[in-house]
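#structure-requests
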Amino acid sequence: KNNMGPDESPRLSHNYWLARHAKLRTDTILFPYVTPSIVKHAVQNAGLLPDGSFKDLPDLASQKEQIVLVDNDAGSSFGKVSQQLKNANIKVIVVKGYSRDQLL
């Protein structure tokens, strides 16, 4: 099935439930890994609030970069998506050998 949206961008999902309900292929699922320490960092440094929103979203959004970090064990299934991101001028960094502080 075609995975292109009305804006001609491929659709990605972050979980099986969303993929199933949006009728997306399972190879378009990205698995975010958010630990309690990452949440704590977001509260302290990015203004994450208990409801999942942010104190100053416009300021935070203005700092956004076109970067996707990919765990080094993502495997070959991420290759096609990675190339699509690169084609869209989004920097893809495979995370290997970085400390936690460097990533945050």
